[in-house]
Every structure is written in structure tokens, then in C-alpha cells.
Write a structure and sequence with these properties.
Length: about 70
């Protein structure tokens, strides 16, 4: 089954998404800030990313990190 990364600063969203997707057989990984989100995506290479685009700053979900 697909690996889904969920990146959101709202712990309730992370918990609910993980619970619902897990009950359908999906594996999930989560992060609660953009920096950790970038790390889990780079390390785990998920099939799908669910991303909150407005976390600490208005454009956190739109910023792109260069290596």
C-alpha cells in the first residue's frame, strides 16, 4: 500500500488523518513543521504528500528547499 506523508502543524489533523488512513491500510509518516516535513519526505520518499500550506508563515507550504 502507498506511503503517505502528512505535514501539518495541527496535531488533531495529524491524529485524525493517521487514524483514518491507517484504518484503510495506508502507512503514514507525519511531521508538524516544514523543516521536519522536508526531512521525512527526503528520507522516506512517500507516494503521496498531504501538506498544510499555511503553517508558521503564510507561505510555508509553498517554499522550496534547495540541497
Amino acid at each position: 500500500m502507498a506511503l503517505i506523508a502528512i505535514i501539518d502543524d495541527d496535531p488533531d489533523i495529524l491524529d485524525a488523518s493517521t487514524l483514518i488512513l491507517g484504518s484503510k491500510g495506508f502507512k503514514t509518516i507525519t511531521a508538524s513543521n516544514p523543516e521536519d516535513g522536508y526531512k521525512i519526505v527526503k528520507t522516506n520518499k512517500p507516494d503521496v504528500i498531504i501538506l498544510d500550506v499555511m503553517m508558521n508563515d503564510q507561505d510555508d507550504g509553498f517554499s522550496w528547499h534547495k540541497d
